């Protein structure tokens, strides 16, 4: 797009535009530091140039992280996107060294939004950007430890038009201008298919195959060297396509960057190898496939985990609930109310504490705090006491204690304390954290793993690794249990405390207001602390 220019459709709503006057892509989605996301890194044509970028539509800033030059923006009104989407778009921009955005700031389409940069430990000057075609701005860490939107993300080439933008290296994206917008429909018609039996070998990476339309749902990607057998070709939507069928569906794959034959090819082509024809055998009726199971057979119960960041949650219909009781030595604001709701609905519940300890003394003070909280309110959790080990707000890393020794020690001190007092206890963390930061202590594990992309479904069976699995954050954290609930029963016992026990240094006062303002959802609670 060009600065200070507006791009408005005939209905009066803005087109959502590429925010740059030129770009080359330096990292695509779902690789490297973008694993499990649709984020893309853009640089200018001049290495190191901190090129300006502009508001792709009239947008409002809804969140900032100045140390990373990071802001979350949301369109003020509905916008038109190349894939036919018409609605609110939310997006994240990162690495602006000249960062001056603030929550509530409104930038009109075409006005400068920021500059490419390298703030936040970026590798080289660029703009990191990712989109969700929704009004859901919740973000958190996925199973790869990458900070991203919790809502389903949208591909950059499905979200922004590229009018008046010089594309230096578009990495096989399906880039479209407003003049070729699908406007909610596709011009693709099977009657336009040209029959051709061939094999294509891709010469570029990350080309998206789409379902039943050049702007349809992305079903998979093809990279350099991949071979595809196709039976038709089609020209339109700014590209040349090969087409084949899978079941009753047509799959379209762009094989050039233009509609003109021989220009910007993304593949080479050859005829299929000749093979002797086999006599046809009579067709036999296909055995209907069994519908895919929503959950693996190992699942015994389904439930949720909640905290104050979920607001007033209706727990009815849940088979179990895990409730945040505290973080550090601070009580979750909704803890007692959530316990009461579960009791009234006769729903078994467990509790957890989010770790903030930086040393052994603080690590001991946390279970003492939670133990006294439970005793004070006569609460014996049905499903144990859990220790939430993560670093969503980078508190550990900022204080130099993000290492396996410290994380393991904190887990051991917490679980040993409650085990000694007769409680069922265990550790919550992501699959990657259990590998990288927590030694196996023999305590039960509550595994957080949302799959490659969090889509609200249970994408794995972790019954051989843990007793519970948090499988999604959409629309809030959902969990499954692999064991009978009686296994998690606690039988609290009194432990005689030494009369002359050493004084425990006071736990440092956490900046709760700062935590509250940045809390967002990662692999634990629906609105997790954001750093």
UniProtKB/TrEMBL annotation:
Region entry Disordered, spans: 263-296
GO BP annotations of the record are: carbohydrate catabolic process; cell wall macromolecule catabolic process; peptidoglycan catabolic process
According to the UniProt entry, its GO molecular function terms are:
lysozyme activity
Q: Where is the composition biased (Acidic residues)?
A: 275-289
* Cross-referenced InterPro entries: Dup_hybrid_motif, GH, Glyco_hydro_25
The family database entries (PANTHER family) matched by this protein are listed as: LYSOZYME
| Family to which this protein belongs | Belongs to the glycosyl hydrolase 25 family.
Protein name in UniProt: Peptidase M23 domain-containing protein
Which species is listed as the source?
Faecalitalea cylindroides
